[in-house]
Design brief:
This protein is of the alpha+beta class. 54% of the residues lie in helices and 17% in strands. The protein is elongated. It starts with a helix and ends with a helix.
């Protein structure tokens, strides 16, 4: 009986019901869309960071992070690679690199740069350079004179494909070494800072530059995209155990990117706070609308009490009306929010106009929203629970009306 009464009562004033349903719908949809957008931004930050020469797991000399010099390279690289393959899954990809600081120059400009010696084929699926859009041609594994530079760096140096650049760095014997390289290709990265930060040469060319054979400053490991945080931690521990005889340091990407790790730890709390903030703005509308409906029906509530209805039942009826409104609004908001999110998940949101700001936070220029079932459940739960909570006041107000009081107001 109370369910039928509550359902009929909310449609006695269709305009008021439509207004409050619209408010709830917009609020729930905003929560879902915002959560998906934020998760897309965070996911983009993590993917960019991992693809930016970090990987999921990295093996380095214990002193390399404090002093990134070729003298702090890895010894017995082949032995380390064989040991890693024992504990890592078959889907894992491994590559060795030589990464050293240096200077690149031509007749017009010079700039500090990070020189990266790579096996181009093994970088596919490992880092951005493996799949980056490129003008010209990529370098090969045996190319001893070719170099890849970023589009922003090429623009700064006013150079192009086929031109020469001189690369200078410290050799393994402590002396400075310089070599001229010819530009084979110009790559385009998601962020301009990446295009200015790196130049790429083949591993044999890097070994000749630093006068070190069969050398590497790091071994990077990339796992399957669906690898969970718990699984990653387990793999890091296994790698540390198996590589203990080699006297190396093993890091997970969270160890190498503490700022992003800290942000991820706080992300869910920030999201919940934002949900509550949106609801507070929406809650005032719910209370005001239900309270207006209660005062308009004073005579009805007085009559119900006069014929013997208990206050608790009146509260139950008003709360039932609020519950129907909240459920309808949540359902509509969820479908609308999912529709908008799915559309932008396919097309992406272009933040090219704010590229400087997105690069500062390590985000891509195109944001792809990510739908998370937990966010949808939390958004609906926040609206339903807090909505019922704020509806208690109008319901109690309706239950306190006396027949005499309502007759005076009629």
């Amino acid at each position: 009986m109370y369910t039928q009464l509550a359902w009929r009562n909310i449609w006695r004033n269709p305009r008021r019901t439509a207004i409050i349903l619209t408010a709830i719908l917009i609020g729930v949809a905003a929560m879902i869309i915002l959560a998906a957008l934020m998760r897309g931004m965070v996911g983009g930050m993590v993917d960019n960071a991992i693809n930016n020469m970090v990987g999921h797991i990295k093996v380095q000399h214990p002193d390399y992070r404090s002093d990134p010099d070729i003298s702090h390279g890895l010894s017995d690289v082949d032995g380390i690679l064989k040991a890693l393959k024992i504990v890592l899954p078959e889907s894992a990809r491994l590559t060795r690199r030589i990464r050293i600081d240096g200077v690149v120059s031509n007749a017009r400009e010079s700039a500090g740069i990070e020189i990266v010696g790579i096996n181009p084929k093994s970088e596919i699926g490992m880092s951005f350079i493996g799949t980056a859009p490129m003008e010209g041609s990529p370098i090969t594994d045996s190319d001893k004179n070719g170099i890849l530079i970023g589009a922003a760096l090429a623009k700064k140096f006013q150079t192009g494909i086929g031109k020469k650049l001189v690369v200078t760095t410290q050799r393994g014997d402590g002396e400075s070494g310089s070599r001229a390289f010819r530009i084979r290709g110009i790559f385009h990265g998601d962020m301009e800072v990446t295009e200015k930060a790196y130049i790429f040469i083949s591993l044999p060319a890097a070994e000749r530059l630093v006068h070190e054979k069969e050398s590497a400053t790091e071994i990077a490991v990339t796992l399957a995209r669906e690898t969970s945080s718990k699984e990653l931690t387990e793999f890091v521990m296994l790698c540390r155990a198996v590589l203990k005889p080699f006297n190396v340091s093993v890091y997970g990407w969270k160890d190498l990117l503490p700022a992003i790790t800290a942000y991820l730890a706080m992300f869910d709390v920030f999201l919940l706070i934002w949900f509550v903030v949106i609801f507070i703005a929406m809650g005032f509308g719910i209370v005001n609308t239900v309270l207006m409906a209660v005062y308009e029906r004073m005579r009805e509530f007085g009559l119900l009490k006069a014929i013997g209805m208990r206050p608790g039942r009146i509260i139950r009826m008003v709360m039932g009306e609020s519950l129907f409104l909240l459920m309808l609004g949540c359902a509509g908001g969820t479908f609308f929010g999912l529709g908008v999110t799915c559309y932008f998940a396919k097309t992406g949101i272009d933040l090219g106009a704010f590229s400087k700001g997105t690069e500062m936070w390590g985000m891509s220029r195109i944001i792809l929203p990510v739908i998370n079932a937990g966010d949808i459940l939390i958004a609906n739960a926040v609206v339903l629970l807090l909505g019922l909570l704020v509806s208690i006041y109008p319901a109690v107000k309706a239950a306190r009306f006396t027949p005499v009081e309502t007759m005076r107001q009629s």
